[in-house]
Every structure is written in C-alpha cells, then in structure tokens.
Design goal:
heterodimer; A: mainly alpha; 6 helices; elongated; B: mainly alpha
C-alpha cells in the first residue's frame, strides 16, 4: 500500500468513524457533490436494477444520517459553547451534555457504517472496484471539509 | 475563540488542527498576557502544554485505529461485524479526548480568575 493510498484509507476511516465531520459537507449548495457522482456511478456500472436500488438506498441512508448529524452537531456546539464560556458552569453539566451527544453520535455512526457495509455487500467485485473509488472520494471530501482542509480536487487512485 | 476551538475539537475529535490551536503556543502566550501573576501564568501555561501532550498521545492511538480500519475495509468481504470494533475503538478514543480536554479546560479555569477567563476569550476571539 503506497503512502497516498494509505492516507486515503485513513481519511476514509476518519470519515466513517467520525461521522459528524461529514455533516459539515452535507447540504452545501456550492460544493461539488461527490454523492451525486457515486449515485451516477451506481447507475452506470450496476446493471441489476434490484441491487442498484439497494445500493442507492444505502447512499440515501448515509445522507439521511448526515442530515441528522447536522442538527445534532449544531445543537451540541451551541450548548457546549454556553457551558464553556460560563466560568461557573459545572463539570457535571458538561459531562452530561457530552454523554448525550456521544450516545446520539454513536447511533448515527452505526447507521452510516451499516449503510457503508450494505453498499459493499451488494456490489460484485468488479462493480466495487469501480465504485469504491467514488465512495472513497465522497468520504475523503467530507473528512477534508470536517478538518478544515481544502477538499481534494484531483482524481484519486 | 477558545470555547469554539474546544467545542470543535470535542465534536470532531480527530481534528488535530483544533487541538494544536487550543493547546498551542499561541494560546499559552495569550494566557501570559491576561494573567498578571507570573506563578499562575506559568501554571496555566503548563496546563495547556500538558493538554497538548495528552492530545498528541491520543491522536497517535486514533491514527492507528483509523489505519487499521482502512486496511480492513479494503477487503470487500469485510462487513459491518468486522468494521464495528474499529468504530467502537474510535468512539472510546473520542470519549478519552473529550475527557482529557475538559479536564484541562477545567484545570485552566480554576487557575484563572473569572475576569482573566473572560479576557482570554476576548483575546482569542480577536486573534481568530
């Protein structure tokens, strides 16, 4: 595994494991739409309509979870900001806020991971060979955005 | 803004950029500006430095989890059951990061007076 591929996989792992990062990307109107490219790729390479539908549903599920994460993150950021700015806030308040956030976060991360696994499982080896790159680009794009780094513009792989 | 940086780091966990900024030398310099007592200023600076060290250590652990996940995921036959342990490990690391970050933040808050705390936030906002 070369360095670039390794860093891509790491980014993918970050994106899947740290799903909230993806939420910064979801819903943006000005950015490229790697999810649309993935959908187009599924239409292009998966001839079986039944499997294609299941794969598209998996992409939909990832996007739906991302939408929920947007709300979750916005709410948590707001509540934590208030707590941390308040010199008199208690540790218990902060911990409670984070515990609730983590529970919801992990539930949504699990949904994303399930959808990711479903996407892989529906594809044949040759299909996945073509689609994996598109999913990877979607995840790298999301991870890059979440970490405040420029989204990759070039072709990968 | 310190709170915003901490919030960002807590929420996005793997964001080393957040950690670097929050526990970086710039924040330490600002602490020295707002805390006139040199003893407390040094203590506060040391707290931020320790926070940086904590997060660097956790970051390395997280990086390993992410790489292992990537390597496993490369195999198409690796499904949810094979990938879930990595997600659980990452979640555990995220909670560790949160705990450590909040520990250091509260340590810092105990060192600073309320006025100094507020002044630090103002300066951090100006710097950002």
């Amino acid at each position: 595994m070369n360095v670039r591929r390794s860093s891509q996989l790491t980014a993918l792992a970050c994106a899947v494991l740290l799903v909230p990062g993806i939420a910064l990307w979801a819903g943006s109107k000005d950015d490229p739409d790697p999810a649309a490219k993935l959908r187009a790729g599924i239409h292009e390479v998966v001839a079986d309509p039944d499997r294609a539908a299941k794969m598209l549903a998996a992409v939909d599920e990832i996007e739906a979870a991302i939408g929920e994460l947007n709300s979750l993150i916005a709410d948590e950021r707001a509540s934590l900001r208030v707590l941390l700015l308040d010199h008199g806030s208690s540790r218990a308040d902060v911990d409670a806020s984070l515990a609730e956030f983590n529970a919801n976060h992990e539930s949504l991360a699990r949904r994303c991971l399930t959808a990711h696994a479903a996407l892989k499982a529906q594809a044949t080896a040759s299909e996945w060979k073509k689609l994996r790159k598109l999913e990877l680009e979607m995840m790298i794009f999301a991870a890059s955005k979440s970490l405040g780094q420029p989204a990759p513009a070039g072709k990968e792989g | 803004m310190l709170a915003a940086l901490l919030v960002g780091f807590l929420v996005f966990s793997g964001g080393n950029g957040f950690a670097a900024r929050m526990f970086g030398k710039d924040t330490r310099a600002l602490v020295r500006q707002v805390v006139s007592d040199p003893t407390r200023a040094a203590e506060a600076s040391r707290t931020l430095e320790l926070g940086q060290q904590d997060l660097e250590a956790i970051g390395k652990q997280f990086e390993k989890i992410a790489k292992d996940f990537g390597a496993t995921d490369e195999d198409q036959s690796a499904g949810f059951d094979e990938l879930l342990p990595y997600m659980q490990l990452a979640s555990e690391q995220r909670r560790n990061v949160q705990r450590v970050s909040v520990d250091r933040m509260f340590d810092l808050r105990e060192i600073l007076t309320e006025d100094e705390w507020n002044a630090l936030f103002v300066k951090l906002k100006d710097e950002s």
